[in-house]
Amino acid sequence: MAIRLERQETVPPLGLIAAPLLALLFTLVVGAVMFVLLGHDPLRAFTIYFIEPLTDPWTLQELVVKACPLLLIGIGLSFCYRANRWNIGAEGQYVVGALFGSWLALATHGTDAGPWVLPAMLVLACIGGALWGLIPAFLRVRFGCSEILTSLMLVYVAQLGLDYLVRGPWKDPAGFNFPQSVTFDAVAVVPLLMEEGRMHAGILIALVAVAAATFVLGRTLIGYSIELGGSAPRAAAFAGFDERRVTYGVFAVSGALAGLAGIIEVAGPIGQMQPSISPGYGFTAIIAAMLGRLHPVGVLVASFVLALTYIGGEAAQISMRMPFDVTRVFQGTLLISILAADVLVRYRIRRVEGASHA
Amino acid sequence: MSDSAAGASAKPSALLEAVELTKRFGALVANDHVSLAIRAGETHALLGENGAGKSTLVKMMCGLLQPDSGELLYDDAPIMFPDPATSRAKGVGVVFQHFALFDALTVVENVALGLAGHEPLSALAERIRDCTVRYGLAVEPYRRVGELSVGERQRVEIVRCLLGDPRVLILDEPTSVLTPDESENLFRTVDLLTDEGRAVLFISHKLDEVRRLCHRATVLRGGKFIAEVDPKVETSSSLARLMVGAEVPRTPREVTHELGTPRLLIKDLNLVGDGSRGSALHDINLEIRAGEIVGIAGVAGNGQTALFEALSGERPASDPESIVIDTVPAGGLGPTQRRALKAGFVPEERLGHAAAPDMRLSDNVLLTTHGDGEIVRAGVVRHSVLNARFAEIVKRFDVRFGGKDPKARRLSGGNLQKFVIGREVLREPVLLVVDQPTWGVDAAAAGFIRTTLRQKAAEGCAILVISQDLDELLEFTDRIAVMCEGHLTAPVPVGETSREAIGLAMGGSQGGDAGTGGAHGH
């Protein structure tokens, strides 16, 4: 007996909405089992993970802080994934964007440079992230390399580059040999939105990105060409859209937004360059994009859900001494559940008696 | 090949019989109490338009589908075929329209893959040779399938079936990919098979063939059994009436209007084949003037797709002058720029080429209209204009579908083709290039499409039609050229040529027959 997947002729629209919710539910069940196995009361763990962060004004702000990079990166990834281009290297583009922007912050450090510094840093970060993203795009267009592999491998190149800079040329001379840069000047820091807490103006930029991406993807010819290229490449060529341009375009946008997220994080909550500037935002954003159905508004919602797993994970670390890896397990389970739920909505499982026949 | 098959020849009763088979797919009743009896020693035709339920019936008769009700009788005893392997073991062989062969393997290796035992290849090759000699199916066992023509591949499939010594052989639209000459060979093989007492179920929509070859014909329409008739006493038009349920409209031929200026000029067009995708073109020359329809006949896979892609701009030519659209050298232009010259293109593949299967129909309107300046302004899609155009296509071209705006995948072949043709016609093109305008489209829709194209020609559009259906080309084009192995013959007015002459050219004969203009372009 074999099992075969058959494409369903009609996909119920309700199923498309229900699938991510079911995936969330399944993730919670898996989580409960995990907590029991770890010897914790699952109810208490869930409360700490998912309820308590929502009851405290400070953690609510933290939620926004954590959702901001996920949202920016996730929107960019939606462009790629809609075009059927699998950019897995947003984490690297995030790092390179942060490097480009930080360069200016450090170069103007201690001078009386005006308020143009932060905007220029944001632009530089976009350029840096886009350039890093264009490398796998070029390799794919020119040599047919799988962008999945090249973009992922470039993550490690970027991270090692960051590591070198903060331990070498960019190290703060007065920093007791800690691998970190000087603290950015006030003109090079993303302003806070409230007196108390860490919520910063980055979320406003992210919300503008949501609006812009919604418009571009839904209303413009560019969005149409991305969608068409991903859905039916031959029809896209027939329509006159250049596959190479679309590939370059989506990687540039995706890289730029990841780079932007990187500099906002460094110039915002962190405030200086250090060896680790991301708890895996670039990878978690992949889940945000998929969970949000590649729609900017969906990604917005999904980013907050995933931000919650970060915050809850931190809380659980403190109050239950649970390892941070539990958060990773949550996020991973969620991604697998989404993908599985998608398959189950679009395909029907059939058991086939008698094994292979030609 | 076995005595059992030969011994059955005198038996008058049915060998394989479908009794009142019903099959539902959701709300659609694909087969509604359909009965069909195939007798030993007979060739039985299964006739019907696309969507009449022929494929469903065949699939139930070989175990690919299970009927919801009704039963199958084999030698007058009820039988169940849970899967095709069982039906094959019982002696029911099927040759499908789409071949299941591996290009990289030889004929004998392909055949061996379908067999259960571990026969040495040399012995199998010997059996294949015996079979090909016996039934006149010229196939060389050690050739690579990738090098074979479509006709040869079909023979490989038939040989593969015959090695299983079937008592019933089902041929699904076997002649749709063959030249007239190859079809003749196939008919001889079929006659040999029935002489041996085997039964053949012959599925076709070519009525002349059915009348010549078949002893009996079952007609389906809309999933229902309509009639069992003797095709020899019917006329082609009476059979067509049974299939369609109404008089089939003949395409009005208007050659009265004057021809205008050349809209398409192809001059010494050469294209290098790139192996994986698309074959080569050699010195193509053609001129089409406003108001005329030029047809290109030929067996599939002789460069028609390459020619289409060269014309649409998907494979730009190196010499800009080699393709001139309305006096503008267009050889180096992309599809959008060529559409800006008021050219329109309809590819053969509806799903995946002419339309994106998983996108909504309205979004598919945009596929070829985004450069026209009306629907897209400054890069922004004006959805109200788009929806208005969509509604107009649906209304004027009678595109039928369920729901408000379904995905292209969900339309039937005929309705999607009407949509694709309508999308181009409403762009008011001066040049239309249509590849396989009525492939897999039911007779009523096909008639409508031909009439529409004829009308556009009368309004001054130049039209190039690429088709493997010679009857269609003879019916509604003005001149016909033939494509073979990347060469194109000079076009000849339809009145001055004959099926035979075109058939010879399709097979690559350069016999210099006056009818087709003989030599290739210069």
Can you characterise this structure?
The complex is a heterodimer of chains A (358) and B (522). Chain A has 358 residues and is mainly alpha-helical. Chain A has a single domain, classed as ABC transporter involved in vitamin B12 uptake, BtuC. In chain A, 70% of the residues lie in helices and 3% in strands. Chain A is built from 13 helices and two strands; from the N terminus they run βαααααααααααααβ. A two-stranded antiparallel ribbon of chain A has the order 1-2. The radius of gyration of chain A is 22 Å and the shape is globular. Chain B is an alpha/beta fold. Chain B folds into three domains: 3-244, Rossmann fold (3-Layer(aba) Sandwich); 259-342 and 428-522, 3-Layer(aba) Sandwich (Rossmann fold), CATH 3.40.50; 352-427, no CATH class. In chain B, strands 13, 16, 19, 20, 21, 22 and 23 form a seven-stranded mixed sheet that branches. A six-stranded mixed sheet of chain B has the order 6-7-8-3-9-10, sandwiched between helices. Chain B starts with a helix and ends in a 16-residue tail after the last helix. The relative contact order of chain B is 0.10. The model of chain B is unreliable at 1-11 and 511-522 (pLDDT under 50). The A-B interface holds A 9-10, 219-222, 224, 227-228, 231-232, 234-240, 242, 353-354, 357-358 and B 82-85, 100, 113-114, 312-314, 334-337, 339, 345, 347, 349, 352-359, 363, 366-368, 370-371, 376, 379-381, 383, 409-410.
